[in-house]
Design a protein that fits this description.
- This protein is 66% helix and 12% strand.
- It has helices at residues 3-89, 125-138; strands at 106-112, 116-122, 149-152.
- It has a three-stranded antiparallel β-sheet with strand order 2-1-3, covered by helices on one side.
- By secondary structure, the protein is mainly α.
- The protein contains two helices and three strands.
């Protein structure tokens, strides 16, 4: 029996202490949550900074590469300018370029009693027929366009 009042008093006086501890624990939990939120924000900020730093490194590398390209192009331009100046100082005889002859695409032939068999080639059907009629007339044949046979090669 002696222990019963002790238990009751203990229960009465310890409850506020436990409640105070519970209240203190809840505050601590809220403080810890706030710190966790702050830490998460800092981690996200660091991630963003790391990404920005990586992008900056990539951009710096790109700038260095582009500068090298510009320098090489400037060197090429200077070489070309020197070459042009050297060529302009040396007089060259006038070079006449001859056009490359294409292979004629049309061929025509005709048989005549007086002039015999004749043929001609031209870049067009009309040219080939014209050459054939000219050859026929120089040989003294009887030449008519309807007797000419042409084909594309």
């Amino acid at each position: 029996m002696r222990s019963l009042p002790l238990l009751i008093s203990l229960a009465l006086f310890s409850t506020p202490l436990l409640a105070h501890d519970n209240h203190r624990t809840a505050e601590d939990i809220h403080e810890i949550k706030r710190e966790v939120v702050k830490l998460r924000k800092e981690v996200h900020a660091l991630k963003d900074e790391n990404q920005e730093a990586a992008e900056m490194r990539k951009l710096k590398k790109e700038v260095v590469r582009l500068r090298k390209d510009i320098r090489s192009m400037q060197d090429l331009i200077l070489d070309l300018q020197a070459l042009v100046e050297a060529q302009s100082k040396n007089p060259h005889p006038d070079v006449v370029l001859q056009p490359v002859k294409e292979r004629p695409r049309w061929a025509c032939y005709m048989k005549d009693v007086r002039a015999g068999g004749m043929h001609s080639k031209g870049f067009s059907e009309v040219e080939a027929k014209g050459k054939l009629l000219e050859t026929c007339s120089t040989r003294g044949g009887v030449c008519f366009e309807n007797r000419i046979t042409c084909s594309a090669e």
